[in-house]
Design goal:
This protein is an alpha/beta fold and 423 residues long. It is 31% helix and 19% strand. It has a ten-stranded mixed beta sheet with strand order 1-2-3-5-4-6-7-8-10-9, sandwiched between helices. A hairpin with a 2-residue loop joins strand 2 and strand 3. Helix 7 crosses helix 8. The longest helix is centred in the N-terminal third of the chain and has 21 residues. It binds alpha-D-glucopyranuronic acid (GCU). The site of alpha-D-glucopyranuronic acid (GCU) has 8 residues, from helix 9.
């Protein structure tokens, strides 16, 4: 209820009082000057000087802050997680791949939730490293493969993609093949596992369904102020998929990379932070509340994202609406929680809403933490030119074009993953 009231107030505020305040800033000269919250000094002022101190002192307190004030805590544990292979084929994609479709069932008390993993594995590997990520409109949209099941879950309408009545159908099969370079991924010896995010938690400001509802106490209608929003729920869904991948003997579960674009990039980052079994993380154009520094207030801001998507973060995050100065952390500290594991942050030149410079700087500022573990981050503060990736354990590129996932992005991810994850 509080969320709905806040949302209404914000809308009223936006429409009647101060449209100027919500005008996005795209002018670099208007970016505020602010101190970058220090990674290596604890909240009580102690300096961190080695990997062990990072792991035992600084990482936990930063993690707690993000958990309680940004993404929200998982409110309990499940009673059971089970997996059922509902379909499989040894000769998928013109004989190139193994295909499996797995139904995951999460159980809590008398309630349960199902979602499906679509898994392609290359035939030339006994145990494949792989990319695990969500898609926006259903597993059947990422390939023209006619055997991929069409999700029955609530789906956002999209006229262009042929989705109406909040229900995906055959019409949308293969409409998002452009975002998933499946052939390239398989040719390089990687597998790909995808999940439709709406099966884990429908992307609407309504907490009555999806993963949240599974954990409610009697009479509860929405998460508490420090409990999870949708991003944390999606992240949790990725971890349970990893539970399955650990049991699949054709997968090298020690080499699973969490991948995501945009809001799903935010979810991939949080999954990689919450669950250190993920071998690495790729954030594609994740922007505000993802890789981008919040205090720059460039493009999308904290107030703006909480107004447009009140269900993504926990209620506590609203304290920082139009008040980024008060944040004792910033998103480079989220990225640093992935250290020492490989991390790739990617931007697109025309995606100013996601603040490419803020995404780059955030990746850059993690370098001292990677250094504690003898890993190479991005030490230069100078942003690379478009289409000139920097690939260390921490990698970054900005490509030409708009907010999207392209073949160019995948080509870079594959080169980097072969170097830093596979070997
Ligand atoms: C909106 C939102 C972004 C988000 C993006 C997406 O633009 O403001 O924060 O990343 O949607 O998920 O495509």
């Amino acid at each position: 209820m509080k969320k709905i009231i806040n949302y209404a107030i914000t809308l009223l505020f936006m429409t009647h009082f101060s449209s100027a305040q919500f005008e996005p800033n795209y002018d670099e000269t208007k970016v505020p000057v602010f101190p970058i919250p220090d990674l290596m000094t604890t909240f009580s002022g102690e300096t961190v000087s080695n990997g062990e101190e990072w792991n035992t002192k600084r990482r936990p307190e930063l993690f707690n802050f993000f958990e309680e004030n940004v993404y929200g805590k998982v409110p309990g544990t499940l009673d059971n997680v089970s997996f059922k292979t509902v379909e499989q084929n040894e000769d998928a994609l013109n004989g190139k791949a193994y295909r499996k479709q797995i139904e995951v069932t999460l159980q809590k008390g008398s309630r349960s939730l199902n979602y499906n993993i679509l898994l392609y594995l290359p035939k030339n590997k006994d145990k494949a490293p792989l990319f695990l990520g969500y898609n926006f409109f259903g597993n059947h949209t990422i390939t023209r493969d006619p055997k991929v099941l069409v999700s029955q879950a609530w789906t956002k309408n999209n006229e262009e993609l042929g989705i109406t009545g909040n229900q995906a159908t055959e019409t949308s099969r293969g409409v998002r093949t452009n975002r998933w370079a499946i052939d390239k991924i398989l040719d390089k010896g990687f597998g790909l596992a995808v999940i439709y995010y709406g099966e884990v938690d429908p992307d609407k400001n309504d907490f009555s369904d999806g993963l949240h509802a599974l954990f409610y106490k009697e009479g509860q209608k929405q998460p508490k102020a420090d409990e999870w929003g949708s991003i944390a729920a999606w992240a949790f869904g990725l971890s349970r998929a990893l539970d399955f991948l650990e049991k699949d003997n054709q997968v090298d579960a020690s080499k699973v990379i969490a991948f995501g674009h945009s809001r799903l990039g935010k979810a991939a980052l949080w999954a990689g932070v919450m669950d250190q079994r993920f071998a690495g993380v790729i954030s594609n154009n994740s922007g505000c509340g993802g890789a981008a520094l919040s205090k720059r207030k460039f493009g999308e801001t904290v107030g703006r994202i909480n107004a447009s998507f009140p269900h993504w973060f926990c209620d506590n995050f609203e304290k920082y609406n139009e008040n980024e100065e008060a944040l004792p952390i910033d998103q480079h500290q989220l990225l640093a929680l992935i250290a020492p594991r490989p991390l790739y942050v990617a931007s697109a030149e025309e995606d100013q809403w996601a603040d490419p410079r803020g995404e780059f700087l955030s990746a850059h500022y993690t370098f001292p933490v990677y250094g504690l573990f003898g890993k190479e981050g991005i030490t230069s503060k100078r942003m690379p030119k478009v289409n000139q990736p920097i690939q260390n354990t921490v990698a970054y590129h900005i490509r030409t074009g708009v907010h999207d996932v392209t073949d160019y992005d995948w080509e870079q991810y594959l080169i980097w993953a072969q170097k830093f994850i596979e070997n």
